[in-house]
Design goal:
Na+/H+ antiporter like fold, mainly alpha
């Protein structure tokens, strides 16, 4: 969670991984090996997240409660409401699995790397952004599966309780273990930033490769009209615009520094959490389609929020 901001070139790595997974999918024992390797990487990723997260950041989620309630409201209330509204207004424009991906996107926690970087660039409340984003990711381990389940029920679908249990086992448990061992682990990883960067990015790429590989094996992409991908892109843009507008309106009740934190923590979604969760909640080929809206939104939020942060910085 506390790794450096993913650079724009990481989007190119994502696109390359999607291409390799689609054109060179794995089968049988090789596919099982990729799945087990992905699960091990997810466990390691969240163990390191727990070891890197300062205790002050967790406690900060309980102090400036007005700021954190505003950000959590954007992340886990406004976003899901917008997603459900779209799914009810235009139910026939997307396939059920693409709607699942869009609703899953709406339930994800805030990204840590980008939100902190953009808040800092805009001259905002960086300490508040760190605490809010870390707190969002921690409770997202529980809130995201619950919200996805609630929203999918409105679509006549559901997720399994075993998937929710795996989320706790593979995300929350290693996080707690890593945080409990922070005193011994952090001095080791602090001097090895390359290691944590490789784990962060490698886990995302493994999850994406496995998901798109399984989708290619099952030939799921042949069942999706090409125009629906354009519709997903349009809906991602509408979601981002709506939540940015809502965050800016809510932020007017706060000092300027906190307004920037609300804007950039409340309007972004974490691919770093989304890719592992998707592989756990939606095993097999379905995860590839579920991940598509998240990756489109990830690229969009990086570009749009960087532009907004730069404009805010020039106004200082």
């Amino acid at each position: 969670m506390l790794s450096r901001t993913l650079p724009d070139r990481f989007i190119l790595w994502l696109l390359a991984t999607v291409a390799v997974g689609t054109l060179l999918p794995v089968h049988g024992l090789a596919a099982e090996a990729v799945d087990w390797l992905t699960l091990a990487a997810i466990f390691t990723l969240f163990f390191l997240h727990g070891a890197r997260l300062p205790r002050e950041a967790l406690l900060g989620g309980l102090t400036d409660w007005r700021l954190h309630l505003a950000i959590l409201g954007m992340t886990f209330l406004i976003f899901p409401l917008c997603g459900v509204a779209l799914s009810h207004l235009f139910p026939s424009l997307l396939s059920p699995m693409l709607w699942t991906g869009l609703l899953f996107l709406c339930a994800l926690p805030s990204t840590v790397q980008s939100s902190i970087a953009y808040t800092s660039l805009a001259g905002g409340n960086v300490a508040g952004a760190v605490a809010a984003a870390a707190f969002s990711n921690l409770i997202g381990v529980f809130l995201t599966p619950a919200l996805v389940g609630l929203m999918l029920e409105t679509q006549g679908a559901q997720i399994s309780f075993s998937g929710i249990g795996k989320i706790v086992l593979l995300l929350f448990l290693p996080f707690v273990l890593g945080h409990g061992l922070r005193r011994w682990i952090f001095p080791v990883i602090k001097d090895r930033p390359t290691l944590t960067t490789i784990v962060d990015k490698g886990t995302i790429l493994l999850a994406v490769y496995g998901a798109f590989s399984a989708a290619a094996v099952e030939r799921l992409w042949t069942r999706i009209p090409p125009g629906q991908i354009g519709i997903v892109f349009l809906f991602c843009g509408l979601l981002l615009a709506a939540v940015l507008a809502a965050a800016w309106s809510v932020g007017r009740a706060f000092p300027r520094e906190s307004r920037a934190a609300i804007l950039f923590c409340g309007s972004v979604k974490s691919l770093a959490s989304g890719a592992p969760m998707a592989r756990i909640l939606f095993p097999g080929a379905a995860a590839g389609i579920v991940l598509l809206p998240i990756m489109l939104f990830h690229a969009m939020q990086l570009i749009v929020c960087a532009w907004i942060a730069a404009r805010m910085a020039r106004r200082l």
